[in-house]
Write a structure and sequence with these properties.
By secondary structure, the protein is mainly alpha-helical. It has one domain. It has 10 helices and no strands. Helix 2 packs parallel to helix 7, helix 5 packs antiparallel against helix 6 and helix 8 packs antiparallel against helix 10.
């Protein structure tokens, strides 16, 4: 089952990627001009990036909920209901947060072609990039597994020692926090794309990401399949690394448009599809920022791996235990 599912996912991903590349080449690209005010990424690229962000965060939420509810069997079966209710409330709260963020950004001048709009877009993009770098580092260093999931499991054990309303409310709050953290991050990540390309393309990507998340959730909680969660997380983590480079290229352009950064053209001939899909443009600031981000994320992973595993072995000490994915839901 795992091999068939993996082959099916790889085949589907390859077909989608091939179609996206074909569409980019067939229909041409925009001139990679950092002073252009619109049209830097294709519609398909915006949908793809948005969908990947939603699916990545949705997958993490499913894993937390699976870890929390894995032991709710037999007499404890009804305990799943308050967790599910909390998760549903978190989805509604995430939608409300989206509209709140849209209203706040609009009040700050995030609509229109004014200088205030450019400043808001630049600041929003920069903040999203910083948070995404932190999230990637958390994932690659295993802090997510050892910290976030571990916190929810400890909280679950504390709640099970109670009874009555306190237990019900606590489990609902546990489900709420597991999902709302991911929803809040998604809202933050997608604001910059919304400001630049409109809500239509972003909404399409959100729906794609939610559909994939719902499919994984159905297999996990309804069909009780044991899925290769860790491999899926690693794969989506790599994809999000690519999205990070796109967001950095876009953010540098926003900073240049707002006058926060200069623009230094370099004599490189880059194909238009690099700008259309990956926001790679021939200017020194954008290229340097993307290279630096890749070095920071990849370098920090190898540094953490060395400090936690290799150096202790070199000193004759027991290395840290590598984090494992939480158990499948049954």
């Amino acid at each position: 089952m795992r091999r068939l599912l993996g082959l099916a996912l790889c085949a589907a991903g390859s077909v989608v990627f091939a179609l996206l590349v074909w569409a980019a080449v067939e229909h041409g690209g925009n001139v990679p001009d950092p002073t252009a005010s619109a049209g830097r990424l294709s519609h398909g690229a915006v949908v793809l990036d948005s969908g990947l962000l939603v699916f990545r965060e949705g997958l993490e939420a499913i894993l937390v909920l699976a870890a929390v509810t894995a032991s709710f069997l037999g007499a404890h079966l009804p305990l799943r209901r308050p967790v599910a209710a909390g998760a549903g409330a978190a989805l509604l709260a995430s939608v409300a947060t989206w509209f709140l963020a849209v209203g706040v950004i609009g009040a700050l001048g995030g609509a229109g072609d004014s200088q205030a709009s450019l400043d808001v877009q630049a600041a929003t993009g920069l903040l999203a990039v910083v948070v995404l770098v932190i999230v990637l580092n958390w994932f690659f260093h295993g802090v997510y597994w050892t910290g976030w999931i571990g916190h929810h499991n400890r909280r679950r054990k504390e709640l099970l020692a109670r009874d009555g309303r306190g237990l019900t409310f606590g489990l609902a709050l546990l489900g709420f926090t597991a999902v709302y953290r991911e929803g809040f991050e998604v809202v933050l990540f997608l604001q910059n794309l919304r400001l630049q390309y409109g809500g239509g393309a972003v909404l399409e990507g959100v729906l794609v990401g939610l559909a994939l998340t719902a499919a994984v959730g159905a297999l996990t909680f309804l069909a009780h399949h044991r899925l290769p969660y860790r491999r899926m997380l690693v794969l989506t983590g790599i994809f999000i690394g690519g999205v990070l480079l796109v967001m950095i290229g876009e953010s540098v352009q926003e900073l240049q448009l707002a006058g926060w950064l200069p623009t230094t053209a370099v004599s490189l001939h880059l194909p238009d599809w690099l700008g259309l899909w990956f926001a790679v443009f021939p200017n020194a600031q954008g290229l340097a920022a993307q290279v630096l981000a890749a070095v920071v994320v990849i370098g920090s992973y190898f540094l953490a791996d060395h400090l936690r595993f290799r150096r202790p072995r070199q000193r004759g000490l027991a290395p840290a235990r590598r984090p494992e994915a939480p158990p499948a839901y049954y």
